[in-house]
Amino acid sequence: MSRIGKHPVKIPAGVTVELKENSIKAKGKLGELNFNASDAVVLSLENNEVVVTPRDESQRSRMQWGTVRNIVRNLVEGVDQGFTINLEISGVGYKAAMQGDDLVMQLGFSHEVRYKIPQGIHVKCEKPTAISVHGADRQLVGQVAAEIRGYKKPEPYKGKGIMYENEKIVRKEGKKK
């Protein structure tokens, strides 16, 4: 029995939710997101809450129950507040800046790295060593942050590279004579 799936998703003020069969559409101040749920669960709207229930007692519908409930919660929370991931750059000469729709980074390579920001994502560089990725779609925000981090992952000897804000780098000891 899913412990997460039992809890209904509350719809905050300013967010409208439409259900058609097993598809859900959420509109809010940050945009509009939709999701087509699996046939193994049933979505219903009751008392300004979205309730997810399994269609039957099969193993597949019980597995999908909690997953679909959390995806619906992320849709509702995303169009209302949005999601933010902060990245930090460490290393001598490593920096980032926005130029139009591109994120331009100097990461110790012989050339600068340009990353085209996808539609629906906002990137800010408050400082040359701080990148903030913000958007309504949680999956897309995480994907963009992971792609940016992938250009120069933090290395364990000096800790140089792009890392998440609260990420701890396990440092290794260098060579000894």
Q: How would you describe this structure to a colleague?
A:
With 177 residues, the chain is of the alpha+beta class. It is 20% helix and 38% strand. The protein is built from 2 helices and 13 strands, in the order ββββββαββββββαβ. The strands form 4 sheets. It has a 4-stranded antiparallel beta sheet, with helices on one face. The longest helix has 22 residues. The model has no long low-confidence stretch (mean pLDDT 92).
Q: How many helices?
A: 2
Q: In which order are the strands of the major sheet placed? A: 11-12-7-13
Report the β-strand fraction as a percent range.
35-45%
Mean pLDDT: 92
Distance between the termini: 58 Å
Question: What key phrases describe this protein's structure?
Answer:
177 residues; four-stranded antiparallel β-sheet; 20% helix; elongated
